[in-house]
Amino acid sequence: MSEATGAGVPLRVSHDGAVTWVRLDEPRRMNPQSPALWAELASVARELPQETRAVVLCASGPSFSAGLDRRTLTAAGLTELFGDTAEPEAIAAQIAGYQEAFTAWRESPALVVAAVQGHAIGAGFQLALAADLRIVADDVSFCMGEILVGLVPDLGGTGRLVDILGPDRALEICLTGRRIGADEAVALGLATLAVPAAELDSTVGDLLEAVLAADPAAVGELLPLLRGATGRDRAGQLAAERAAQSRLLAARLATLRGE
Prior knowledge:
The protein is α/β, with parallel strands linked by helices.
């Protein structure tokens, strides 16, 4: 296993064969997020080793992430984020760069699994939503808390919530900023499975074992097929299914014929 730490950024990345582990690593502060962390996350997502078939987004300590460092919301913090400008267009351009730390995982050729324990608030919740699957500890507490500080989710979370929950429930969760525990997360489809915190790592390991046992080419076709399903109409999704299956069958025929 190889491991690296982003220079000056509390992020540990390790590669274990076909699995890459991406771990937020500032547990004493509940793994707050910052532009520097986002830049590193985007870089890791874009530069995964070719052999990586699965990524685990996880965190050290009792909480996944308390979200954006609150110090960023001061005048000094906002100036650090966006410079001296107060023009919406310039601010939007900066945010577009920050969003890459979240959207890049949805474009990865690898399956992305979030292992989430404790608090996953704001940007922490949105990072978990960027994964394909979420396995949570029974003490998890999801919260889209941006509305509580006069902001909106802007790191891909609104689209993912609507994809998973539909617009009505997504709106309710974003408007209230309420906490969502493990049982409700599973019932709503926000989490695939909830387990005791002590069993989170082993449960993720069992999932990875099953994923890695599946045919790599089929998984490679299945991920974009399902990730893009909500953005296609019925005809478009049927066409995408045909195209994916045709590529797999053509490759199988070529192999069977010794071509």
